[in-house]
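During the reporting period the student researcher (J.K.) took over the structure-prediction task from the postdoctoral fellow and processed the backlog of single-chain submissions. One of the processed entries is reproduced below for the supervisory committee.
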Amino acid sequence: MHGADPRLVLGLHRSRHHRDTLTAALDLGVTDLDTAAPYFGFRSHEVLAETSADLLPRSTLSTKVGFFLRAGRAEHSLDPVRLRLAIEKAARELGREPDTVLLHNPERSLAGMSPADGHALLGSACTALVDAARHGLCRTWGLSSWDTRPLGTAGVEDLPSPDVLMVRAGFLVGIDLLDTTAVLRNAWQAGETWGMSPFGGGNGTVWEDFDPRPFLRPPHDGLSRVQAAFRTAFHLPSAAAVAVGTDNPGHLAQLVQALGADVDTIAVSQYLRALHGHRQS
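J.K. obtained the following structure tokens:
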């Protein structure tokens, strides 16, 4: 659920992994750092340890497992043995255990499976992460899903409840996916929800045509459309944290500033009702 103090998570997807970026984030009070095994050409963990080993203990670090390099190409797997080995490898490469480990896009392996087979496979993968946390390889665990619909099809009610459910967030997420995410996290009784990709992969031209600032409560003088889009993303869906990837300290500072704005939840509710009405018409 959305907490009193929304958090910005610095995501390293497409990042150049420069030490200066991590230093700037820490200087701004951004201590949540999110990466994944396949980022930076499957070298994200190693590069972080090489360039920023002294900074990592100052960050709350999450990473993701589920993609593996085979014959020069990435393949997805929810095999529990491979997942456990990947978590152990992440800790070795980073030089420390990650705080949170997430299953990376589990829907990639669930697509096309029968509900029964998908349920069994997802259950074994979740159990592997539960065991990893129990053995001290991470503190918490969860899932990062670009498309939550296959997870709902597999059924999650009797599976281990994740500490974190990371999903797409913001105005560029369709109502079907927002509804599916809401049903999934309620059925699963997930802990925190984290949002990701609030700008739809960097498509900045959207905000030239659409002004999200009316979704903020006054006063919001001086805030840009991008800042308003980011802040409102914490309510689409309701999230405790939102991950944003940037190598620009100035952009990061603007997003940190936006955290202090208040969202007009009535306007958000009206927006969601309008989306439902448009879908039904």
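The committee noted the following: The first strand starts at residue 7 and ends at 11.
J.K. will present the remaining backlog at the next meeting.
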